[in-house]
């Protein structure tokens, strides 16, 4: 059970209470709902970011090894750039997801 502050009197009350036990004001619970929604939205955003990085990584590998031979010249730069960006992007996203999940709603 978490404690939140009453929006009217700022005294600590249970997050599950429907009305403040100090001043009797009704609590809508909107604040919690909003913070939950934004938490879920951020999670979805991070998952998309991870998929995008993964696609970039795979695209880099495909460009690099297209035709069964290691790339040369411009193709190797493009493939290498996608590969590295995708890989780093994926690692960063994983880290962001871990940090995000640690946050309690
Ligand atoms: Zn109150």
From TrEMBL:
The chain crosses the membrane at residues 46-66, 78-99. Keywords: Membrane, Transmembrane, Transmembrane helix. This is Zinc ribbon domain-containing protein. It comes from Shewanella woodyi (strain ATCC 51908 / MS32). The lineage of its organism: Bacteria, Pseudomonadati, Pseudomonadota, Gammaproteobacteria, Alteromonadales.
């Amino acid at each position: 059970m978490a404690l939140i502050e009453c929006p009217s009197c700022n005294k600590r009350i249970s997050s599950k209470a429907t009305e403040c036990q100090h001043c009797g004001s009704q609590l809508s619970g909107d604040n919690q709902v909003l913070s939950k929604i934004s938490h879920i939205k951020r999670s979805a955003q991070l998952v998309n970011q991870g998929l995008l990085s993964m696609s970039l990584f795979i695209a880099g590998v495909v460009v690099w090894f297209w035709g069964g031979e290691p790339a040369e010249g411009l193709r190797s730069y493009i493939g290498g750039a996608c590969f590295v960006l995708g890989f780093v992007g994926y690692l960063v996203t994983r880290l962001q997801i871990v940090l995000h999940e640690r946050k309690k709603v």
